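Appendix B. One record, verbatim.
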Amino acid sequence: MTRLVICDRNRILGEALAAALEAHDPEMTAVATSTAEGCTAAVTHHRPDICVLDLQLPEAEDGLRLIREIRDCCPGVAVLVISDVGDPAIWAQARKLGVAGFLSKNRSVSQVADALRMIAAGEPAFDPAPRGAPRPQAPFALTPREEEVLRRIAAGQHTRQMAAEMDIAVSTLRTYVKNVLAKLGVHSRIEAAAIASQADLGGEITVQPPPGQQTVLHSA
């Protein structure tokens, strides 16, 4: 039996995929959720074999950070990303984080089931890397404070952590984030982090992740 946790931002689609996979393969059992918090809780509680993850979730500041959290708390859980994110840098970062597969959302139920069986057997299941338009490179027209926010986004910090370490209000931090996304011409922190990973931001910043772990983000 292959146990699944399916997390899609559209709850109806997530539940439909769970039901379809169970009907397609009696050896699969699935639990569906639609938020980052619900995904982490479901993975921790059910300890599935595979987590099927949409990177663009409500209230998820960084879908890549959610992959890190799953890998940290439940290293035995394989992660299959099924997402319409077409940025090749995000695809590459997901692979570096150790996901077992990355499929586009136009895949059929039978194709998803085939990929899940491959992953359950210890084989990777990746679509070809997307070919996106080149992203603009730094220097961006960012203020020093905005550049620091971008570095912290790339390092996977959440809103309250950034605000606390920068000694500013959460509302002020959210304004900085909004400005950074607007100046980069992107709509999510995932895309901003992908640009930051490719760009020469100059210098480095030491951030404070959860206790017992330290991350230093260097310039490209």
